[in-house]
């Protein structure tokens, strides 16, 4: 296992980048703890795979360094970094059996035959392929091949880190849940440093100890699922995490009040003068319909999703989503929305402002 340090790391695919916009990865400084499980989360093109390939040694950064346990590995090839990587699409040896595919990384390093057999059996159990161990990989389905690929990545116990690049893309939904559960179990048992790239928030939030949210080549927040939900450091985090995402409304902040299109909203904290593009953000879970208080809204529709209702409303051209209980009655006179003041976040130029206790 290894502590991974990104020291002034940046990358551009252009030979002569002229400015920040020419960088696929903007400069970052982060330290990821030994033995922790991280998920790199963000929309397509945000830089997740680029960062993973730099950590693995498949790509050399334009600037900065990568360190494993304080040792500079920036110029070391993948083989010298002692990592295992699982890619989005399965990489298996078709002429080998499932057993031979799983054993290959261990045999390639001269492991004892008895240990190899024991370890292969254990991993086959994890990926649900015990009955297929002696079948050739050729002819297996895409999701079966990806399970083999996952197994090969997990079979070694001595790696510095396990890197997963959207590994469950071709796996059926039920098996995705099973494999995520097994990955978490393996992490608890062996304590590998794991980095898991995904654009799926459910995968990220259920797999990782810490989620690394990326946007436009930047790491905009590293935090636990609870931190990302309750206190998004950037409006993108608020919008991207949650279903529906955070409501974001332009506002003028005066002390412990937000002024929005002539209406005043109480805040849970006190703020000094703010410059730039100022907004407030509040989760649909912390909004409620009212007949007497809050912002006047026009309700467009109500969606019953089983465990709760999602109320889609509009306020002066801004969409507002409200989550109501399944048994909550929504009367015709409920044309206002009120927010839980303690759950409102304030942003200036998309970045969260802390404020002071009111």
Automatic annotation (TrEMBL):
Residues 4-241 form the ABC transporter domain. It is a peripheral membrane protein. It is found in: Cell inner membrane. The keyword Transferase does not apply. The keyword Secreted does not apply. This is Carbohydrate ABC transporter ATP-binding protein (CUT1 family). One of its GO terms (molecular function) is ATP binding. SMART domains: AAA. Keywords: ATP-binding, Cell membrane, Membrane, Nucleotide-binding, Transport. One of its GO terms (cellular component) is ATP-binding cassette (ABC) transporter complex, substrate-binding subunit-containing. Belongs to the ABC transporter superfamily. It comes from Breoghania corrubedonensis.
């Amino acid at each position: 296992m290894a502590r991974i340090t990104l020291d002034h790391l940046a990358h551009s695919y252009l030979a002569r980048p002229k400015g920040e916009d020419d960088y696929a990865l903007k400069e970052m400084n982060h330290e990821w703890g030994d033995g922790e499980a991280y998920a790199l989360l963000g929309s397509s093109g945000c830089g997740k795979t680029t960062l993973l390939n730099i950590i693995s040694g498949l790509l050399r950064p334009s600037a900065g360094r990568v360190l494993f346990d304080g040792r500079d590995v920036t110029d070391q090839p993948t083989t010298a970094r002692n990592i295992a990587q699982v890619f989005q699409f399965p990489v298996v040896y078709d002429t080998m059996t499932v057993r031979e595919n799983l054993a290959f990384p261990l045999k390639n390093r001269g492991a004892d035959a008895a240990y190899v057999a024991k370890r292969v059996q254990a991993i086959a159990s994890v990926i649900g392929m015990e009955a297929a161990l002696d079948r050739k990989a050729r002819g297996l389905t895409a999701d079966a091949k990806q399970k083999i690929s996952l197994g090969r990545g997990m079979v070694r116990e001595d790696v510095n880190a396990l890197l997963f690049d959207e590994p469950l893309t071709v796996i059926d939904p039920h098996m995705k849940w099973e494999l995520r559960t097994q990955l978490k179990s393996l992490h608890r048992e062996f304590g590998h440093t794991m980095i898991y790239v995904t654009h799926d928030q459910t995968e990220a939030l259920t797999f990782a100890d810490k989620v690394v949210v990326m946007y436009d080549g930047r790491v905009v927040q590293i935090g636990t699922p609870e931190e990302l939900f309750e206190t998004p450091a950037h409006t993108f985090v608020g919008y991207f995490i949650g279903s529906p995402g955070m409501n974001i409304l332009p506002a003028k902040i005066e002390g412990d009040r937000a002024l929005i299109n002539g209406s005043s909203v109480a805040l849970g904290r006190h703020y000094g003068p703010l410059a730039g593009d100022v907004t407030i953000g509040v989760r649909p879970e912390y909004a409620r319909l009212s007949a007497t208080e809050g912002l006047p809204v026009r309700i467009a529709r109500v969606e019953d999703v089983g465990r709760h209702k999602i109320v889609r409303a509009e306020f002066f051209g801004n969409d507002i989503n409200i989550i109501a209980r399944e048994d909550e009655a929504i009367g015709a006179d409920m044309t206002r929305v009120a927010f839980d003041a303690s759950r409102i976040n304030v942003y200036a130029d998309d970045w969260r402002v802390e404020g002071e206790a009111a």
